[in-house]
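fyi for ur records
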Amino acid sequence: MALSTMIKVVVAGSSTELDTFMLELQHAAVFHVTALVKKSETAPDYIAGENTGRFSTAGYSALIDLKEFLDSFREKESMWTKLFSPLKIIKRDKFYSAVNSFDADELIRKADALRSRIELLNEEKKTLTGINSRLESWKDITVPLSDAGESGESFSAAGFAASEKIIFISEIPGIDCQILKQYEKKTALILACHKSDRDRLDELMQNISFEKIDVSEIEASPQQAYYSGKARLEEIESELDGARADGLKLLEQYDNLVLTVEHLGNMESLGRAFRYWDETPYSFIAAGWIMKSGIQKFRQICGMFTAVEFDIVEPDKHEKPPVALENRTLFAPFQLLTRLYSYPAYGTYDPSAVTSVFFAIFFSICLTDAGYGLILALFALWGLRKTGWRSDILWIAFWGGVFTIAAGLLTGGIFGDLFRREAPFVNLPLLHDIRDFFIWFDPMIEPMTFFRLVLLLGVIHVITGLIIGALSKLRQGRFADALFDNITWLAIMVSLLAILFASELSVRMALVNAREPLLVSSVIFPAAVTASAAGLLVVLFGGRDQDSVFFRFFIGFLKLVVLSGVFSYLGDILSYIRLMALGMVTAGIATAINTIAFMMSDIPVAGYLLTAVVLAAGHTFNMAINILGAFVHTLRLQYVEFYSKFFTGGGVPFEPLSLNSRYVKIID
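which gave:
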């Protein structure tokens, strides 16, 4: 539970060393830039320096566009490759050597010419494809149709009419018809008339279901136009193949292009950061935050320059230092879960370490299957290896899988009841012995043991949250808040639990697996006195922020009963029953899958194949859907039932000036 201590510094130096100094800071990733000049003595907001154009990114957008164009010639990466491929690592000197030697203008010129060529070919291809699509049914017509339309005193139209309605044309005076090609259902023809009979022609075309075609772009006959267009389309495809080959040649410079894009992206970041620096013709000055663990590195960087000095300064009382979560390697991946919720306020507790333990335990209870846990852990390890062991979500999945293996062994779940001893589906004595050795209880046979377990974990989780909340408030000097909002409720909860487990009610509710209460009845009276005294403190001081005496006591009473009160805590603890529900659902569905699968084994010939398919598909589906449910519901218990007892959010994340590392990772 650690937030890194932040140190504020002011750094100044010669303008001649500014560019190199900022570049070194970017590579070190230790300096969180903050603005230097306040708007006023009373306002906490800051304004940036006026110099914003020092770091040039000219041509950045053009290179981004060029990269996207060349990407169209590269082999498409699969989703797995995108997710699990680690960044390419390059040494710093080689990176800048490649950037400085790269001729961007020449590559842009060649790419623009190639792009124009491809666009013209594609446009011509689109036009010809449209024309040939319209001429598909007319490709046998050898008569030119270019005269169709209005010409002098006449009007003509080419198109299709329903074959069975052709006879109606002869019944209309003043209409000439030339049949070009007759098919079973449609007939290609030309209709003509004097301009004065145009209305009559329109009515006829409607009656015979006439489909007019556009022949304005066709000078030759439909047959000539169709086959000429088809030949040209083949030529265009050949030319496009040549253009693609030229594009592949341009990919020879793709790696250097990517490095240059990365470099200009880094320069853009420097330009944004430079808005918060002040500079004169001869000097610069800037302010920022550094993690305590990074101050030595910052001192070394400043020592590399002859005219750069820094001082550690006291921050103003209204300033909020940025927040950096700092945990041991084992717990660090679970910082992701904390960040998803919110950054804790500076000076409070980082719950990542405690969250990691409870998350892994609750996740494993939701699955309770050693087979599923093993597959999840192995898949996570494979993904971690592909990503260079740097994926937080895969580490979370790995530990969830490891804990699920333990939970599955303790509850006898190995792909459901696949390896049960009684009437086994798979008769492997060694696995039967392993299952019998580790099993604590079978939730399908002893559901009340499962029920007591999840309620116990819920009580421990909630009490842990109250303890962390009390310690956090005491650390901040908020003694009244710690006493009346946390310590009193710790006393109430422990006292009520003592009363419950010292009474017969715990036996009747099956909260204990015995005929007698766990505690002696003599603890009931002192526990009741403690609970009453703590409850009275909540009523008297729970609404201490209210000015009115009546509302102070009224709000205090509501806090005791409703608002984060007894019933609220009862609801919080009962919500942990969802762990039991999800665990039993996983086991129940797995058992059903096994039963259905082995029912098919009696089918001749294909029985064993069908059994294998049902087992593989069923358990894959059951594992996937319940992993998702376990993640969501376990996360909900952390955020709603746990964090609400102590978490103070609103922290500003520590974002030091650093390299973008979108495409490559630069090392010294």
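The first strand starts at residue 6 and ends at 14. thats all i got for now
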